[in-house]
Design a protein that fits this description.
Layout lengths: L10 E3 L1 H4 L8 H12 L4 E4 L1 H8 L7 E4 L3 H7 L3 E5 L3 E7 L2 E7 L23 H7 L7 E4 L4 E4 L3 H7 L1 E2 L5 H7 L2 H13 L2 E2 L1 H4 L2 H4 L8 H12 L4 H10 L9 H5 L3 H19 L6 H22 L4 H17 L6 H17 L4 H8 L4 H13 L5 H12 L2 H7 L32
Parallel strand pairs: 3-6, 9-10
Antiparallel strand pairs: 1-8, 2-3, 2-7, 4-5, 5-6, 7-8
Helix pairs in contact: 8-11, 8-12, 14-15, 15-16, 15-17, 16-17, 17-19, 19-20
The structure holds adenosine-5'-triphosphate (ATP) and magnesium ion (MG).
Magnesium ion binds next to loops.
């Protein structure tokens, strides 16, 4: 429909060449394409889903691209809403599934800042233009569920087979337009086991500082995607290798020189990757708390050296670290609140006197705080014996718990989680000073 005159023709791969089974496409995405088509619009599965299906990986979600304008798409689907982040998109809901529908865009003609960063990217265009504005060749394939073909304008099909991330167009120009693409290159390469094409890679080191011009909230989102990719350790290693870690998380610099910090971070990342790959949930707050912990420790120590008492010194350190971080990569408040709770539980977990130990068990973040302490123990920061104590204490019967407490310390009341009644009554409450 859009191939007017000189427009380039895509390569077309038929079902027997690409091997993607229609049954591997989500119900919602198929439905969206079908309904668009019934109304004389085009509808293709695009982006990561096509790439992943070619690789035999189950896609995270399905994106659809169309020549219908967002308002038209919205009108076609009762359960849909327009969302306007950087550009207008439509989210179409099918039960628990959300299909993101985007209108073909031209990718140029928008405003740019003095470094060439596109400030707006919302000019509609043809399918050919839409393919050209995408970031990597592997991400610019169009699957048409109607005739089961894959359309390829930029050699993405061959690049997927070769496991190569290759940017579309001039690398330096495309990275200037949107520096986040450098992070995306690293994330996809690490996650998919691809190499970054030599020409694509070449300008990255030189342009790395442009990351600093990206709005902090967007950087946070991208960093989160990277950390939750199931390959965070590989991603961070590659970020360092490409010189891209400066300014993102200052600790990534510092940590290399602190063996203990390095070990702690590695354990945290490995654990996160293992959970994601096993399909378990991961708490972003826990992860960021881990990423910044050694910064907090360093600031805490400095504050204590300035004659502050230990706990106020820690609270000050937490704020200092989070404030410094906000300029670069702003962590949303909903996370920082939890991060602070996890951090502030750490010194409390090091005291095992009776009443406090029982109170801690009922703390809403106890589990996260305890998991965090396990990492600290495994990295050699606190004695393993402390972690083991808490492991046993949590699961012990009341009698054993009481026996485990440091002498003269016992709870006033039994904890809520009642087990079968144990012998006798709990010892009298201890005077172990005010809680907290
Ligand atoms: P994921 O598996 O992480 O979802 P994805 O390739 O689907 O990978 P999305 O962020 O969901 O990535 O974006 C969907 C598609 O939109 C991409 O495949 C790419 O074609 C295009 N795209 C996304 N971000 C950019 C960008 N910064 N510059 C150019 N194109 C982009
Ligand atoms: Mg996607």
């Amino acid at each position: 429909m859009f191939n007017m005159g000189a427009e380039p023709e895509p390569r077309i791969y038929a079902r027997d060449k690409h091997g993607i089974a229609r049954s591997s496409i989500s119900h919602g995405a198929l439905k969206v394409c079908e309904i668009l088509r019934a109304h004389n619009y085009s509808g293709y599965i695009v982006g990561g889903a096509v790439r992943d299906l070619l690789l035999g990986v189950v896609p995270k979600d399905f994106d659809v691209a169309t020549d219908a304008h967002p308002d038209e798409v919205h009108r076609l689907f009762r359960r849909s809403h327009l969302i306007g982040r950087r550009f207008k998109l439509v989210h179409v809901l099918f039960g628990p599934e959300t299909v993101e529908v985007s209108t073909f865009r031209a990718g140029e003609g928008g405003e740019a800042d003095e470094h060439g960063r596109l400030l707006r990217d919302n000019v509609y265009g043809t399918r050919v233009q839409d393919a050209a504005r995408r970031d990597f060749t592997a991400n610019a394939l169009y699957y048409d569920p109607h005739d089961e073909t894959v359309l390829d304008y930029h050699g993405g099909f061959a690049d997927v087979r070769k496991k190569t991330m290759r940017i579309i167009g001039d690398p330096a120009l495309r990275f200037r337009e949107d520096p986040v693409r450098m992070l995306r290159a690293v994330r996809f390469a690490a996650k998919l086991g691809f190499s970054i094409d030599q020409k694509t890679r070449a300008p990255i080191r030189e342009l790395a500082d442009l990351i600093e011009n990206v709005p902090a909230a967007r950087l946070f989102e991208e960093m989160l995607k990277l950390l939750l990719s199931g390959h965070s350790a590989a991603c961070l290693a590659q970020l360092r290798k490409e010189g891209l870690h400066h300014g993102l998380l200052p600790l990534l610099d510092v940590i290399v020189e602190q063996p203990q910090g390095e070990r702690f971070l590695r354990l945290a990342l490995d654990q996160t990757d293992a959970r994601i790959r096993a399909g378990k949930s991961v708490s972003p707050a826990f992860l960021f708390a881990a990423l910044l912990w050694h910064e907090v420790l360093a600031a805490w120590k400095i504050n204590e050296g300035k004659d502050l008492r230990s706990i106020p010194a820690l609270y000050l350190a937490m704020d200092q670290v989070l404030d410094a971080q906000t300029d670069k990569l702003s962590i949303p408040r909903r996370l920082t609140t939890t991060m602070k709770e996890i951090w502030s539980l750490q010194p409390r977990l090091e005291q095992r006197s009776g009443k406090r130990a029982f109170v801690l068990l009922t703390h809403p973040r106890f589990r996260a705080g305890y998991d965090f302490m396990l990492l600290r123990a495994e990295s050699g920061e606190v004695p393993m014996e402390l972690a083991n104590w808490w492991t046993r204490f949590q699961d012990a019967e009341m009698e054993e718990r009481n026996a485990m407490l440091i002498p003269d310390a016992a709870p006033k009341k039994r904890p809520r989680r009642r087990r079968k009644s144990t012998s006798g009554s709990a010892p009298a409450p201890a005077r172990d000073g005010p809680e907290n």
